[in-house]
Design a protein that fits this description.
This protein has helices at about 15-25, 45-55, 75, 95-105, 160-165, 200-210, 240-245, 250-260, 270-280, 335-340, 370, 380-395; strands spanning about 5-10, 35, 85, 90, 115, 120-125, 130-135, 140-150, 155, 175, 190-195, 215-220, 285, 290-295, 300-305, 310-315, 315-320, 320-325, 345, 345-350, 360-365. The protein is α/β, with parallel strands linked by helices and about 400 residues long. Strand 19 (about 345) and strand 20 (about 345-350) form a beta hairpin.
Length: about 400
């Protein structure tokens, strides 16, 4: 690893992989001039872990959304495995998608691209001629990068207020957020599990718990919403995005994003499975209902709900989602101080290339939603982000400097 690089990509998830292939497609000479940092040292490790832990059988996005620049590459790859594309819109099976991504990594020769180190800090080195960034790595090394793309996801776990008000300590495995649950390690025969939340994740958790012999109680503060996708397909093209981009008021854009995603929803297939389990007596679903208070009694939970009912459970699982707030992202603290930019409900106002105003740091994922739209965090959002970032990185006016291959002793 050199100590001076042109481009540092922080994170090795689906967004980072999408960016890498799109960059190489536009400019092969970039190869060898960028580094990808992820503590796992592997592509998509967090994504794989989440899908395996929740036993998610297939993606929610149709087969055209994936990290390869050719939208039809996944369909071509799946020609010999048609049974792994699920109706109604050819949703790729998890294993199929994983194998396809491995093939993308092989085809684009990215196997050795991920440096197995976490980036602990990004410090802007302000210089009027050529500002750069110092990346502090977990092993104490420092890297100087001319440009940085932050593709880490950047979300925080969202916890309801009543969790913070639980009066006593309790075993950490008895109350978990969905991000920290691994169904493969759960032993639930005869256990009572409360799942809070009405999104697709809570549906996967409920089915996984029932299959392990648990009795499940699902609490949804609104009505169970059935939708094929997170946001209407019109948000993937000009149909809805035209008005979104024409809106110059950032607060109104933020509101449009919230309305488009409209909280959690389940796919019709998962909702149908849950209704079947209701009839079988394995799950109770209460809508328009939320937890008011939870108490750990030493052996189990006592929970009071907004409909005045009281229940006892062995486990509480929170499928209460994640939120994006740039002010709590440690990697951006110094950037924010050096280059202040307006922040709308946690989302930074970036330029049209998803560049942090005033410097050469780009952002992908949910934090870029004000410039990408409601699907910024999805696979389709990764492609849309690339359409904005890649030209800014490869166009001649900001072309790459010759890479400096001499590493100074660290």
């Amino acid at each position: 690893m050199t100590n001076n690089i042109d481009l540092a990509i922080v994170g090795a998830g689906p967004h980072a992989l999408t960016l890498t292939t799109h960059l190489l497609q536009k400019r092969q000479s970039i190869r060898g001039r960028f580094s990808v940092f992820d503590p796992s040292g592997m592509w998509l490790s967090g994504w794989k872990q989440q899908f395996a832990a929740l036993e998610i059988p297939h993606l929610r996005s149709p087969a055209v959304h994936h990290p390869d620049p050719n939208p039809f590459a996944l369909r071509k790859f799946a020609e010999s495995r048609p049974q792994e594309l699920f109706p109604p819109y050819d949703l790729p099976g998890t294993k199929l998608f994983e194998d396809f991504c491995q093939d993308v990594i092989r085809v684009w020769q990215l196997q050795e691209q991920v440096i197995p180190l976490a980036v602990k800090g990004i410090t802007p080195l302000v210089d009027n001629l050529r500002p750069k960034f110092r990346l502090d790595l977990q092993d104490g090394q420092e890297v100087i990068a001319r440009r940085v793309v932050l593709a880490t996801g950047g979300f925080q776990i969202q916890l309801p207020n009543w969790v913070k008000e639980i009066p006593t300590t309790y075993p950490p495995d008895k109350l978990c957020h969905s991000q920290n649950i691994d169904l493969r390690k759960s032993h639930l025969t005869g256990k009572r599990v409360l799942i809070v939340g009405g999104g697709l994740t809570s549906g996967h958790l409920a089915i996984g718990a029932i299959s392990r012999g648990a009795k499940v109680h699902l609490l949804i503060r609104r009505n169970l919403a059935e939708k094929l996708f997170d946001a209407e397909p019109g948000w993937l093209g000009p149909k809805y995005l035209k008005d979104f981009f024409a809106q110059s008021n950032w607060e109104k854009r933020w509101t449009m994003i919230q309305q488009a995603r409209n909280g959690g929803s389940m796919t019709p297939a998962i909702a149908t499975q849950l209704r079947r389990q209701v009839r079988a007596g394995n799950i109770r679903i209460d809508e328009q209902c939320q937890v008011i208070k939870a108490e750990w009694l030493g052996e189990n939970w006592r929970v009071e709900c907004s409909d005045s009912s009281r229940h006892e459970f062995d486990y509480i699982w929170l499928s209460t989602g994640t939120k994006f707030d740039v002010t709590t992202e440690p990697l951006l603290t110094d950037i924010l101080a050096a280059y202040p930019t307006p922040i709308i409900k946690g989302l930074p106002v970036l330029d049209t290339s998803l560049r942090w105003p005033g410097c050469e740091l780009f952002i992908m994922g949910g934090l870029a939603a004000l410039q990408v739209g409601p699907t910024a965090r999805n696979l389709s959002g990764a492609r849309m982000a690339c359409e904005k970032i890649v030209p800014a990185i490869v166009k001649p006016s900001v072309s790459f400097s010759p890479s400096i291959s001499t590493a100074k002793a660290s």
